[in-house]
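User: Can you recover a sequence for this backbone? Please restate the input before giving your answer.

Assistant: Of course. Working from this structure:
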């Protein structure tokens, strides 16, 4: 059994609708359980900034799917929402990224290959990821820094 924290975003069309439909499908998947969503927040784009604002969230779940199988499930949900990959960090109907993964013993999983990197390589730099993560995992610490302290650092920048 694995535990996942999945970043969720949308900035095209019915943003909340895309997220809600994907969440409902995700909850119904046989290999996924205990699905919890953070609150939805509106955020400015990151990276490529010439686009509409995002609605972001974070999902927590437990699953028997290994990280690569989870990636396939998330990509199928993106495809179902009409996701097109034209511009790196560009507009999207649905964006689902595995941010953190833990094994049954609670040890953080590290993956780095051509298709997947966990922890997500930019998660510690993005308030739109950390704020919803904080809601679900307020005691999280990464490389000796608490999520509270990291959010304070980023908000001062």
């Amino acid at each position: 059994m694995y535990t996942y924290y999945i970043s969720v975003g949308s900035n095209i069309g019915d943003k909340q609708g895309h997220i809600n439909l994907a969440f409902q499908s995700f909850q119904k998947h046989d290999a996924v359980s205990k699905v919890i969503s953070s609150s939805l927040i509106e955020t400015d784009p990151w990276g490529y900034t010439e686009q509409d604002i995002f609605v972001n969230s974070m999902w927590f779940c437990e699953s028997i799917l290994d990280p690569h199988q989870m990636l396939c499930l998330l990509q199928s949900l993106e495809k179902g929402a009409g996701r097109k990959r034209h511009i790196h960090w560009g507009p999207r109907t649905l964006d689902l990224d595995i941010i953190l993964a833990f094994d049954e013993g609670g040890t953080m999983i590290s993956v780095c290959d051509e298709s997947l990197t966990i922890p997500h390589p930019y998660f510690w730099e993005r308030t739109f990821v950390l704020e919803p993560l904080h809601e679900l995992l307020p005691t999280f610490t990464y490389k000796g820094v608490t999520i509270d302290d990291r959010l304070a650092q980023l908000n001062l920048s």
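That completes the design. The longest helix spans residues 15-28.
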